[in-house]
Amino acid sequence: MTKGTLFLIPVPLAENAAHKSFTSYLGDTINSINTYIVENEKTARKFLKEAGIKVPQSDLVIHDYGKHKRNDSFVPYFKELMTGRDVGLMSEAGCPGIADPGADIVAEAHKRGIKVVPLVGPSSILLALMASGFNGQSFTFHGYLPIDKVERAKKIKELEQLADKNKQTQIFIETPFRNNHLFEDVLKSCQPQTLLSIASNITSEDEYIKTLPIALWRKERIDLHKKPTIFSLYRQF
């Protein structure tokens, strides 16, 4: 039996940013399928509506892959794909599989011999890197740093050393309500000449992106509380 295709469908990063995120192919795709695997059903349905889906919402089959479902069997998620129906995979924001649990679904699709098609859309990590002015040929995304202050300070210094040794951009994030604490720890832990780029609320109406040496950041007053933010470290030579 012919298997379906798994389409990886990006979702806008911010409110009122949908028009910056759509392509005509994305629109064509969501109107050719009616089954989705999603991280957040409410977010997914809202995005599909904004993207101009013509399939009635009541006719959609939504498989919830939220955090409380990730230890369950993969079988229900692949029922339609294994019987020849195309399915869309959606994250809560950004690109599925990039710093996102949807990567597990993609990995399982490959194991089952299912074709995977990524669609063009916004990735906060890549957008932040693009706007940083840092090395875009060698970079590492570390995800979340340790919560413990001592361990976090140690990790920040390690990243600074990696940036220096490998001439490599070091990218990391924090839960938005702890952004200000992370920012303070970066300023305390890094050398004055180390460069820090902050990209906050990317694609939103109050997007904030700025790159400065740590010495100058120490003179800045910014509030990153509850604002999705990408932090990047680099060393110039």
- What does the radius of gyration come to? 20 Å
Number of helices: 8
Overall, the morphology is elongated
Structural class: alpha/beta
What pattern of helices and strands is seen along the backbone?
Answer: EHEHEHEHEHEHEHEEHE
Biggest beta sheet summary: 5 strands, parallel
Roughly what percent helix? 25-40%
Report how far the terminal alpha carbons are from each other. 57 Å
Strand residue percentage: 15-25%
Count of DSSP strands: 10
For the biggest β-sheet, the strand order reads: 3-2-4-1-5
Mean pLDDT score, rounded? 94
Low-confidence spans: none
Structure write-up:
The termini are far apart. Helices cover 31% and strands 21% of the residues. The radius of gyration is 20 Å and the shape is elongated. It has a 5-stranded parallel beta sheet, with helices on both faces. A 5-stranded mixed beta sheet has the order 6-7-10-8-9. It is an alpha/beta fold and 237 residues long. The protein has 8 helices and 10 strands.
